[in-house]
From TrEMBL:
Cross-referenced InterPro entries: P-loop_NTPase
Protein name: AAA family ATPase
Length: 664
């Protein structure tokens, strides 16, 4: 007579999805087609290990084999306790032994490997499932290497996730939202399916505290100390966790927390750091924000400042990693899902395009934008191939982006109607000053030629962060032929829609920002707030500077400010307030005095500093008196003063426009 256990087995049989590789390996072992009779399955909590073992038990029974399922968490972790549990199951000969929760049996791992499992019948099959990967001894021994197959149990793919929800009775309209939240995690999908059947699907994980609690209990062991808890929060917020970053968030506990995080079953070790699974990240972050909102905000600020400081001071590969870290912090941004889809494993990178890749890029531009655009692309690639970057996927290009630096006076720059419209706009509204340049993200697409492709989002985002934070710029512009897709993104970035150009039969919309009015540091500060709030719109007026000064106006403002170094009340009206020298009179005064002192570092700079110091910083009553104190004839003093003011102004202008300065 059938019992309820048989009914449950039937339900499991009908509802089981996925795990084809593990099921095939088990069937081969069961039928004697494979020598690998010990299957070791490992993965984080909630990933479906228990479900798989119970399903395999049903398969064994339907194949006429006696099978026993043991839960390691319910056993005495001793040889005697384990033997007693096996004997109590009365499995008879040729048993199929399925051991769940193997992490609880770590004290007898060696005994099981050396003493018990080797005594089982030759046609016996053992499946061990635990959160942690097997100890190295399981694979180091030559004999075991031929008998053990190790399977890391990951999340379900899209097809299996859909099948799971369909068999759970979830209506088709709700499946997409559930899959977006559940991200292939079986327990999450099951809990969300239950929520859909009994109520409504939450919009975010944070809207379902009970679900978060269940997932946290399933996936995460309790953090042993407060530092470990902060370490978990750090790991959840960033793309890749490094020990250097942990030193900023947990201090001297960083090495200990790093080792602990590295051993978590939901954390993967990458070449440049640690990364949790995407769902684990979302769950940890939602839990941390729910339980410790103030600490969560403080942690975000620490991580943001660490990333930004490195981004502004580093170069090469490290800068790109930090650019990806910064992009990861924008979890409330419009394209966070696309970025996660590409960068979640921390192995995707932006690289300089190879010469042989550029003709294909131009061809794609011709196909998806137009033939005249392809001709311009060829021109840009020929004149400045260094502006082209790609994301390589397998043997092909996943994403492509090209940055033009203008003005360059190149032939293509003069022929490109989009670039000409941009330069005309700048000339009309905020002319470039000598030495200033603009950056234009001119072409961008994914492997399919579309700008909305996830790899296009990745390439455009990372390359722009590197360009904008890597060197001084007067303006930044991005050209889009898919404004309905990119518009919300640039609204989030506080970039304005500047102009549009119809060219090649396509509408090219240009978004931009004048860095001289809304500088990189101010922009990064605004983004720090939007990383958490998801706010949009132009930058607040209080964060914007006055329109940039021309060279003549700047020189005149410096010359007018010097006599007022000892009169802060008069400096408040200086045109220099709002330039790179400072946002108020006190900052401008300090910057000018510092610049005067720095002249001493130039060849023959001591006399230039001395003349300015005695004239403006600690002034003598009159210029004649200053000349007398300096021991100079008045005509010589006047000549030295003019040269000193010219040199000071030149260096200050170089700082204003981001140019390098060198001494004579």
């Amino acid at each position: 007579m059938a019992n309820l256990g048989d009914v449950m087995d039937d339900v499991r049989w009908q509802g089981f999805v996925g795990r084809a590789a593990q099921v095939a390996a088990f069937d081969d072992a069961l039928a004697g087609r494979s020598e690998r009779r010990v299957l070791f399955v490992h993965g984080p909590g909630g990933v479906g290990k228990t479900t798989l073992l119970l399903y395999l038990r049903s398969r064994a029974r339907r194949a006429g084999r006696r099978a026993v399922y043991l839960d390691g968490s319910a056993l005495d972790p001793s040889p005697e306790g384990f033997v007693h549990a096996v004997q109590s199951a009365d499995t008879g000969t040729a048993p199929v032994l399925l051991v769940d929760g193997y992490e609880h049996l770590a004290p007898i791992d060696g005994w099981l490997r050396r003493d018990l499992i080797p005594t089982l019948p030759a046609d016996g099959v053992v499946v061990v499932a635990g959160r942690d990967a097997p100890a190295p001894a399981w694979r180091a021994d030559l004999g075991w290497r031929g008998l053990v197959a190790v399977h890391c149990l990951g999340n379900l793919d899209e097809a299996d996730s859909t099948a799971l929800l369909e068999r759970a009775g979830v209506a088709a309209p709700d499946r997409e939202a559930i899959m977006r939240l559940g991200r292939g995690h079986p327990l999450a999908l099951a809990l969300l399916a239950d929520a859909a059947l009994t109520g409504t699907v939450p919009k975010t994980l944070a809207d379902a505290p009970d679900l978060i609690s269940a997932l946290i209990a399933s996936m995460v062991h309790d953090a042993p100390t407060d530092a470990h808890l902060v370490g978990l929060g750090t790991c959840a917020k960033v793309l890749l966790t490094t020990e250097d970053l942990l030193r900023r968030t947990v201090g001297d506990d960083a090495p200990r927390v790093w080792e602990w995080l590295r051993d978590r079953p939901f954390v993967t070790v990458r070449p440049h750091g640690l990364t949790p699974h995407d769902l684990t990240r979302a769950v940890l972050e939602a839990e941390f924000e729910r339980r410790f909102p103030d600490r969560y905000r403080d942690l975000h600020r620490i991580i943001h400042d660490y990333v930004v400081t490195g981004l502004l001071t580093s170069s090469g590969t490290h800068r790109q990693l930090l650019a990806q870290q910064l992009a990861q912090l924008h979890r409330e941004g419009p394209f966070s899902a696309q970025f996660r889809a590409v960068a979640t494993d921390g192995t995707v990178a932006l690289a300089r395009a190879r010469p042989e890749e550029l003709p294909g890029a131009a061809e794609l531009i011709g196909t998806h934008v137009g033939p005249r655009s392809a001709e311009l692309a060829h021109g840009w690639f020929t004149e400045r191939p260094a502006g082209a970057s790609v994301v390589r996927v397998g043997d092909g290009i996943g994403g492509f982006v090209y940055h033009a630096r203008c003005p360059s006076g190149s032939l293509t720059e003069n022929q490109d109607p989009v670039i000409r419209a941009i330069l005309d706009h700048v000339a009309r509204t905020a002319p470039l000053r000598p030495g200033e340049q603009i950056d234009v993200s001119r072409f961008m697409f994914g492997h399919d030629g579309e700008q909305s492709d996830a790899y296009a989002v990745f390439a455009g985002s990372i390359s722009s962060i590197i360009e904008w934070c890597g060197r001084p710029l007067a303006w930044a512009f991005i050209v889009s032929v898919e404004p309905s897709f990119w518009g919300p993104f640039f609204d989030y970035l506080a970039f304005r829609e500047i102009l549009e150009v119809t060219f090649d039969g396509r509408r090219h919309v240009v978004y931009g920002n004048d860095w001289r009015r809304f500088g990189v540091h101010a922009w990064l500060e605004l983004m720090q707030e939007r990383e958490q709030s998801g706010g949009t719109g132009p930058p607040p007026d209080c964060m914007q500077q006055p329109a940039p000064l021309s060279r003549d106006t700047f020189d005149a403002a410096v010359r007018a400010a010097l006599p007022n170094l000892c009169r802060p009340d008069r400096l408040a009206a200086s045109r220099l307030v709002g330039t790179h020298l400072g946002t108020d009179a006190a900052a401008v005064r300090t910057a000018l005095r510092t610049a005067v002192d720095e002249l001493a570092g130039l060849p023959r700079g001591d006399r230039l500093r001395a003349v300015l110091h005695r004239t403006y910083v600690s002034p003598a009553p009159t210029q004649e008196a200053a000349a007398e104190v300096l021991g100079l004839p008045f005509s010589t003093y006047r000549r030295h003063l003019a040269k000193a003011v010219d040199e000071l102004t030149e260096r200050l202008w170089a700082g204003e426009t981001g140019q390098e300065t060198t001494g004579d």
